[in-house]
Amino acid sequence: MGRVSQAQAQENRQRVVATASRMFREKGTAVSVADLMKTAGLTRGGFHKQFVSKADLVDEAIAHAFEDPEAHSPAGREEPAGDHEAARRTLIEQYLSVWHRDHAGEGCPVSGFAADLGREPDQAARSQHVYINGVRNRAARLATGDDDGMAQLCTMVGALALARATRGNPISEELLQAARTALTKSGSGQCEPQHHVD
Questions:
Q1: What phi-psi label fits residue 189: left (phi over 0), alpha (psi between -120 and 50 degrees) or beta?
Q2: DSSP 8-state assignment for residue 155
Q3: What is the reported pTM?
Q4: What is the pLDDT of residues 92-110, one digit of tens each?
């Protein structure tokens, strides 16, 4: 076989990073390099030509996830432009949806990487800057008045984690609904959640 062109090598690297970003959010960073490369349609040997270590790939995968617009709007739905409150409610509804619960690999990196970064202090130290910026940016999209959005984000991430852990039991959807209701209450009532249909 001939040598891979520089353009092909770059394309392969991007494919590995995108694949890793999805797989790590869905299954955790313990996914083996062999499984990752197989899913990407490449050989394991190609990994060592592209990355110094798996830790370097995890860093790039986390950064990629925060740059991915699909991860900002679960289910690929657009947020209303120009109306912060409507955008905030849409984000809450999408985040706390059954679709997002069931599609961790395509979802928010804040929830997708939290457990791994909490368990792996060495990796957390490497990836923390990107992750912290991502957390702050997500919270800012929820901010209202004097509320910086942090507590709202904590509620959303926690509810999503609990819903994923209890999937298959009715309590899973009850947890999502309870958090949606708590976060979308207003003086005039509640915002009805919109459901995504695949």
A1: left
A2: H
A3: 0.80
A4: 999 999 999 999 999 999 9
